[in-house]
C-alpha cells in the first residue's frame, strides 16, 4: 500500500521536509545518519530475517546501553524512566 493512501485512510497528515533542507528536522536527520553509518553501512544482510536480527541488536544497544550526550550521559531507557510514574507496592 502506498504511504499516501495509508495516511489518507488513517487520517494522518504527511509533512515532508523540503528538499535540501535537512535542518528542518535535525534530530531525525542526525539519527538517520548514525543508523546508516553504524548499522546499515557496517553489515551485510543475507536475508530479511538476518536484517531484522542485526537491526534489532543495534536498536537495543542504542536505546539500552549507550549513553547519549544529549540526555546527560543517560541511555534513552534511563532517561524515559525518569518520567514514568512510580509504582506503589
Strand element count: 0
Pattern of helices and strands: HHHH
Overall 3D form: extended
Residue-averaged pLDDT = 89
Structural classification:
mainly alpha
Measured between the Cα atoms of the first and last residue, the distance is: 46 Å
Beta fraction: under 5%
Helix residue percentage: 40-55%
Unreliable segments of 5+ consecutive residues = none
What is the overall number of helices?
A: 4
- The whole-angstrom Rg is 17 Å
Largest sheet: none
Give a short summary of the structure:
This protein has 4 helices and no strands.
Report on this model:
The radius of gyration is 17 Å and the shape is extended. It is mainly alpha-helical. Helices cover 49% and strands 0% of the residues.
Task: Break the fold down into its secondary structure elements and pairings.
Elements: H1 3-9, H2 26-38, H3 48-65, H4 76-81
Keywords:
89 residues; mainly alpha; 4 helices; 0% strand
Amino acid at each position: 500500500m502506498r504511504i499516501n493512501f495509508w495516511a489518507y485512510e488513517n487520517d494522518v497528515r504527511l509533512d515532508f521536509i523540503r528538499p535540501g533542507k535537512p535542518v528542518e528536522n535535525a534530530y531525525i536527520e542526525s539519527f538517520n545518519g548514525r543508523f546508516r553509518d553504524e548499522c546499515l553501512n557496517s553489515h551485510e544482510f543475507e536475508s530479511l530475517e538476518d536484517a531484522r536480527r542485526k537491526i534489532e541488536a543495534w536498536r537495543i544497544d542504542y536505546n539500552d546501553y549507550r549513553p547519549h550526550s544529549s540526555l546527560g550521559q543517560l541511555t534513552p531507557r534511563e532517561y524515559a524512566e525518569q518520567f514514568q510514574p512510580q509504582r506503589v507496592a
